[in-house]
Amino acid sequence: MTTSINTLPLKDRLLSLFYENLPHIKGNATPAANRLREMALAAFERQGFPNPKMENWRFSDISQLLETEFAFDFHNQSRPFDIEKIFTCDVYDLDTFSVTLLNGWFVYKNAPLTRLSNGTIIGSLAKAMEVYPEIVDEYLGKAASAEKSGLVALNTAFIQDGLFIYVPEGVTLEKPIQLINIVDSQVPLLLQPRHMLIAEKGSNVTLVNCDHSLTHNVSLTNTVMEVFAHPEAIVDHYKIQNKGKNSALFTNTFFHLQKKSQVSSNIITLNGGFTRNNLHVTLQETETHADLNGLYLVDRNQHVDNQVFIDHAAQGCFSNQLFKGILDDQARAVFSGKIMVRREAQQTLAYQNNKNLLLTDEAKVNTQPHLEIYADDVKCSHGATVGQLDPEAMFYLRSRGISEKSARQLMMLAFADEVVQKISIEALRQRIGSMVERRLKGELSICDQCVLHCNDKGPTTFNIDMSKI
Amino acid sequence: MLSIKDLSVSINGKTILDGFNLEVKAGEVHAIMGPNGTGKSTLASVIAGRDMFDVDRGEITYRGQNLLEMAPEIRAREGIFLGFQYPVEIPGVSMASFMRTAINEKRKHLGLEPMSGAEFLKLMEEKKKLVEIHSKLTNRSVNEGFSGGEKKKNEIFQMALLEPRLAILDETDSGLDIDALKVVANGVNKLRSPENATIIITHYQRLLDFIIPDYVHVLFDGRIVKSGDKSLALELESKGYEWVKKEANMAAAH
User: Fold this and answer.
1) pTM for the complete prediction?
2) Which is the CATH superfamily of the domain at B2-91+166-253?
């Protein structure tokens, strides 16, 4: 059943929907999760949706988007289901442990929750709340604060399902876990998956997160993910965003790092109508390491906004931010990177770089570095560039017989490659590299991984009827 | 092969070449010498197709075609090569993908099948020896982190790969020590043939000890004021450019 929400402003509609559906939303969630959701609702009521009057939303106006009459799936409509029948992802045939969310709900072939022989648990958050309530309660909402963000508050109030990963102490997962988020709906849909990843002491896990849409309808995804890296854990996170022009994606990702843990975050935005990535990294304990990379390739009226907040709260930690973007047509990009170095965070190394290539006069980028430093023994740097393709280099390439078009592509690829080279798994690096290459050659659309090939047929009219599967 | 007639070129309204004439035939090596700021590099750039200059008058014919109407990449595919005075660093573009793209675009232009990866790597190894490049070039970005000498060697290496009909070497000798100079000259000499031609642009006579030109021209105030054989280069070396300047000014006064 899909509940439609009408007439009132979206905020008010969501508030009333919350109370109407509360018994159902609470479902089998843990009591602690339900207490958290009520506090979060109050926080959402107080903060509402972001607006351009807020400092970090100055360049990203979502007011028009919020006028959409969104529907909301309170009920899991998915049944055990074979994703390969409707969708193949470019990264898919990598050797991964693959899981899928359809419209925010976990879909599965065999079981909603898998426990591997090494003790790793992968599966549906809804199910994890029933089977492992003590783990969920220990972490849920601990990294993502509803008090500071209306979007996090909204997601938290409506927590129902998402991905749950628990990696026990000392376990190294050889295969990356791949999460495919698919939106497919006949009506404009608002969905709010909630993910958590717990990497226990000394464990090692790679998560590849692909966001896709199979529909040309408007959709709004407001996702929250909390990642907990215990001492000496290594977490690599890749987000590949390839969504339709009518889809809006808000991702709120929180990393919490304990002593000597290492995380990398790689956000690759290939397509998307409106994309906002909020990345919040807390270096809570000493000698942690965070590598935060981003690449956005946008054209037409696409809008991508990356906001990074890195909190150096302990001594001897390292962070590096490298975000690069290529903007064509009237595309718009925003980057804001804040480095906070607290008084106790001596011997901090914190670097930030945002580089942009504008291919037209109409493309626009706003980039803002912020440094807030309270310790005295630190090395911090930030840099931002906005430029065009170097005409000297263009002429050099052309003078060797390379066409203007090929020369542009070579240079754009070279520009993007700095971020692609940060990907440590070779197979993944090659795959993402080839997606970037095809995107820059204009050969990658949002639909060509999809077996439906709706590109040839115009907007898709395909509807997955779950009851028949 | 190349015929330049009455060429006048300006940039931002300032005339640089003014009534320049030059004829180059297959098999010939021409040296163009002259003091700084007389238009030597402009000449090289205009032949290669750089669009920052305005051609106000005159014509350039290359193998019977109007060169000025051709895009730089078409000129290159038709066999023109410019060895840059300041080779450009292009971070992220590997030498291998750069040269392979260039060779295959040229081959396509000539109606030939693209070269396979293996063939290309073999060719690269072969040509590297010619200019005594020992480092692994394949994965290095174009000119990035190259020393001055390496950059110039790299120009000759690219020339060897592309096998041009007409090579223009713009101050290829500047900034080279004597060993590198010999390597570069040796590379150029090995590529000389009755079918191709070379224009060497230089300030000093030094390179011409190793690459013996058929003709030496002195460029002054945007035009050739004196031409001769290789002995002219030696004369210039001993008498200096003041000597031709005086002659040119006297001729202008008459």
Assistant:
1) 0.84
2) P-loop containing nucleotide triphosphate hydrolases (3.40.50.300)
